[in-house]
Amino acid sequence: MATASMTDKYSDTPKASLKTTEDKSDEKSGKKLTVLESHGYTIGKTIGAGSYATVKIAKSDRHDCQVAVKIVSKFQAPGDYLKKFLPREIEVVKGLKHPNLIRFLQAIETTHRVYIIMEYAQCGSLLDAIRRDTFIDEFRSRRWFRQLLEAVAYCHERGVVHRDVKCENVLMDRNLNIKLSDFGFARGQMKPKNGIAPLSETFCGSYAYASPEILKGVAYLPQLSDVWSMGVQVQNKVTFPKEPNVSQACRSLISRILVPQRIRLDIDRVRNDIWLSLSLVDAQTSTTDVLKDVSVVRDARNTALKRSSGTFKGAKKHSTAIGARIIDVRSSNFNVLDENNNRYRRNFK
Known about the structure:
Blueprint: H1 6-10, H2 21-29, H3 35-38, E1 41-49, E2 53-60, E3 65-73, H4 79-93, E4 104-109, E5 113-119, H5 126-133, H6 138-157, E6 170-172, E7 178-180, E8 196-198, E9 202-206, H7 212-216, H8 222-238, H9 248-257, H10 267-271, H11 295-308, E10 325-327, E11 343-347
Parallel strand pairs: 8-10
Antiparallel strand pairs: 1-2, 2-3, 3-5, 4-5, 6-7, 9-11
Helix pairs in contact: 6-8
């Protein structure tokens, strides 16, 4: 299987009908093109590496821009990953197109490797921003959380659950817009059918962002698990300072997300929360920027206090709106760790 057999199946762009002048000159000089070069990609520096995959920047002649290339070694990757989870990831992402999702461009398979070509996010990850600025002020947090929320809601509406929403997987483009990436643990076809919401028993993700039901090893609603992970993110962004100044509206939202599954807000209720309805403020690029008080925040505090005064008095008040019977959805056994040994996948036999 020396040819790029996955190209026709997964390519998101038309094939080039003519060879470039550079290709012809390479042939005349006897220089053998690499697989990526033959598809119009010139590989650059490495920007990420794991136990069996590497991510590099490349210049794309076809797309006339820089792209990210994820290179998966068939010799180092687990068999189940190559046969089931990698094809699932590609199948999921090629059907998703949203301004806050990293766009899939093409997949190429050779005898030794699989290459996944994606949109390149120039400004790194949300984790990089937190490390650089020490903390993210509430105005930027709201903007980025809103964008992340729209990306995850878009996926859920199409029956796709991400299952590994974390700061490392939230990337940023040159305009500091959020781009959710890495659908390695994602699963499609998770829409309720005939009023039945499927559960997941694939306990995957990252420990720091995993919901209590995943850590307990009980069947769970993956959509609500994604909501929990997003709640951890917004908490991380606004509470990093020693003395965080967080509005009551923000505190109220976090307190209704980071709760047991049965009383956790679903994604529609999060989208309609008072904190996200506050006036948009331009994103800051440095913690040295001067913050101006916004009068609407004071009103939001009072409104949020009234709304949240009975948050934990009754489970029904903040229960999910799914209201459906549950069926059991089992996945095959699979275990994988990333370079920091903080990702996991565990299944019951």
